[in-house]
Sequence to fold (245 residues):
Amino acid sequence: MFKKKVLVTILSILLIFLLVIYNSLGEDNHVMLTRLFSLSNDRLVSGYVDNDLKVVEFDINKKELGNNENKEVNEEIKIDKVTDDVKKANVKKEESNEEVKEEVVEEKPEVVYDGMTLEELSNKLDRSFNNELSGKGYLYASYSLSKGVDPYLAAAISLEETGCKWNCSSLVRNCNNVGGMKGSGCGAYGYFNTLDDGIRAFIDNISRNYVAYGLTTADTMHHKYAENPEWANNVNAYINRIKNA
Fold:
């Protein structure tokens, strides 16, 4: 019984002491203590106390949401950048491919006769021509083809008629006649102002008077072109030499 009275007395003294302290703090401190005692563990966990004991709260989920939005924006920017880089790379690749195509595309020389280009044919004929006919391979090749005449045949007849495989005859040197053609101006033979004129006239004669009638070889031309019984054999022999030159 005595102990209970003592305990009640002590508690009454403490209560009086606290009331005295409370009354002496003033109104601002009353508010501060009230706020301090009213703070809950949940609010302390979700915020912090400033100097005025005001609870500043922040929304953790909102912050995370903001971070996620920023990440999505950053990822979109990165994707856009990668897309732009890929587009630029494709453009450069296409331009590079176009340049390569332009460099690779080259016109191949046309094959004109016996698997050869005009230049190759001309060089082959030139290897059989000497003296006055040297360097006339291109004229023989190009003009014969334009007139439908076998270039080997035209060159071989000239070699048989002029001897220009070795030394050209006086008919070539004096009359520019490369085919032994009859005419005027050089006795019983035709005369031409230049060697090129004589070559063209000779090929025109074969085209007009022989090929036009289906006479396209030395054998078919022989009876009309020359009286020498060995003429066709000699021309064919020259054709073989030209082919193997």
Notes: DSSP finds eleven helices and six strands in the chain. The chain has three domains: 2-57, 59-106, 115-243.
